Amino acid sequence: METLKFVRQNSKEREFANEVRKRVRAYFKDNNISIYGNFNMYLKSAVILGVYLVPFIILLTMSVSPWTGLVLAVIMGIGEAGVGMSIMHDGVHHAYSSKKWVNDLASSTMFLLGSNIFNWKIQHNIKHHTFTNIYNYDPDISNLKIIRLCQYGPLKKYHCYQHFYAFPLYGLMTFARLFGEIGVLLEYNKKGITKEQNVNPTWQLVKLIAIKVIYFAAIIGLPLYFTDFAFWQILIGFIALHVTAGMIMSTVFQMAHVVEGTDQLFVDKDRQIKHDWLVHQLNTTSDFGRKNGLFSWYIGGLDFQIEHHIFQNICHVHYPAIAGIIKTTAEEYGFTYNLKPNVFSALASHFRRLKELGNVGTPPAPLTGMASVQ
User: Fold this and answer.
1) Sign of the dihedral through C-alpha 313, 319, 322, 323
2) Distances (CA, A) of 195 to 121, 127, 130, 189, 200
3) Cα–Cα distance between 122 and 285 in angstroms, integer?
């Protein structure tokens, strides 16, 4: 797997990294609080799982009209996105609980999205979190062609319209995972990444195919067997479910990294990032809002992305408490803490950034914190 070296440029970066870690550890110790999930986290999990599963149970056990069925499918999509952001995400980061089996159980909710845990860990935990916003290393900004999410990606004429068409295309996110991750796993197997993670490539492929078969048997087969809906009606509901989930999750993720004020980098020949890793996370990530209420609860604290990227092993229910510590420490040491006032300002910033990235007349921004490519 790709390797890069993070090289701090001065003692201030080291001191900041050590100090922010020390202060956050002290917060949990002084208040006798676990870094993992609590009762509120478990209650949230039950509610969000209910938002996903209850509409499906109603569809299978009650006679409803096609329009009611469509509404229930959309509600399932809202629940599916919530499961991914608020339960699976913490489980895969081993932040849900101090117990491995509980984290594994939370991680396994990925199966409700028809996807597997292994692919997500490689793409998200390892590549995205280690190489955040680094072109050709972070798949979240590097792999899309029709949408240009990075200033170092190829620029096409049609990108000048992407700030309009990107948001509908975000609805295809879960479809891309659902139908594309077998190919992704085969690529991981070919590159030896699977073996590097001490995982049997053949067995992982068999598991992934089995997950797909079981998922489609449940999400398509059960309605065919238990309801009077025609196949085309079930297919419309299936599409509505995934478009809803995909649009929610993709938009939330983009508002954390593809907004104004977040750095995007291109690797120099020496394969070095000229910053401490923690400072790099601060430079490439943005928070949006501090009082998003129910929305923040629903999206699993992903509006506190700086906190998540620096302390990904801490459960998201604690992010509001440690956000002030990180912001204050960053400002004391002279580092920028990128904070958008609210969800709408972050959404507007992402829209403007998409427009900027699609503008033929806009030159690439300088390589912030990097030596120039020779």
Assistant:
1) positive
2) 14, 16, 19, 7, 6
3) 20
- Classify residue 17 by its DSSP letter: H
**How far apart (Å, rounded) are the C-alpha atoms in residues 75 and 226?**
20
How would DSSP label each residue in 285-345? Answer: --EE-S--THHHHHTTTTT-HHHHHH-TTS-GGGHHHHHHHHHHHHHHTT----EESSHHH
Q: What token pair was written down for 210?
A: 């089995």
DSSP E strands in the chain: the ranges are 5-6, 272-273, 287-288, 339-340
* C-alpha to C-alpha distance for 309 and 297, rounded to whole angstroms: 18
Contacts 24+ apart (CB under 8 A), 129-133: 129/309, 129/312, 130/4, 131/2, 131/4, 132/257, 132/280, 132/281, 132/284, 132/285, 132/309, 133/257, 133/262, 133/263, 133/264, 133/265, 133/284, 133/285
pLDDT digits (tens, 9 = 90+) for 38-62: 999 999 999 999 999 999 999 999 9
Kindly report the pTM of this predicted structure: 0.90
The low-confidence residues of the chain, meaning pLDDT below 70, are 1-2, 360-374
Q: What is the pLDDT of residue 271?
A: 84
Per-residue pLDDT, 290: 78
Phi, psi at 340, each rounded to 5°: -90, 140
**pLDDT at position 364:** 52
What does the alpha-carbon distance between residue 94 and residue 180 come to, in Å, rounded to a whole number? 26
